[in-house]
Amino acid sequence: MPYGYVGTCLGTVAASSGAVAELWYARVGEHEAQLDLYSRDYLSEDEQRRQRRYRGRGAAERYVVTRSLVRGVLSERLGVPPREVPVNRTDTGKPVISGGVHFNVSHSGDLILLALSVERAIGVDVERRRDIARVEALVRRWLSETERTAVVRLGAMGASPSDAFLRVWSLKEARLKALGVGIAGQSGADELLAGVEVSPLDDLLASIATDGDDQGYVGAVAFA
Fold first, then answer.
1. Residue 50, number of CB atoms within 10 A of its CB
2. pTM higher than 0.85 for the full model?
3. For residue 162, what are the CA distances in angstroms to 29, 101, 136, 205, 217?
4. How far apart are the first and last CA of the chain?
5. 195, pLDDT greater than 90
6. In whole angstroms, what separates CA 66 from the centre of its chain?
7. Is residue 23 within 8 Å of residue 219, measured between CB atoms?
8. Lowest mean pLDDT, pick from 35-49, 65-79, 173-187
């Protein structure tokens, strides 16, 4: 393969149905010297135009590495150059491709996480562990009664309010992304969520923790 991967395989997660998710990750800070190369060789013309519209350097760097990670891995699966991977979007904005591969991507802090599956639609979420302002209000506003109960249970097990919220939030986000809806569309997806299998990725993410990650990351992958 002439292009190579922009990232590293983290491992796999299996659903009870037998579907498998392959997980890849990249750290933005490790690729700063290659950004011009990645933009030229991996990004589509439309993505290059979007890159130029970013005013903040950090956001532009994260965008380039994210798109390059996605296109590099999908390029190998589809047997086409990265720039020619046919990435489209659904009406709700979820990136999709034709060719029998489901994928989803998430980023937080310096970490970008990509999930792929050939069997089922997939969603992934990663969250840098951090202190959340007004976390109680966010729990009341965005979490269901069952999810709020899960936050309370994690707190009783010793998790801080912020950590408990982020763990439950990552599970919710992954499930909604697998369905292809955002948080604003969760009310319409409530009856479907029961059919979405979700697995936490905390152990896998802990395996790639570095000294610069502070408290590390939590995350989840979901199959729809």
1. 15
2. yes
3. 26, 34, 9, 18, 12
4. 31
5. no
6. 10
7. no
8. 173-187
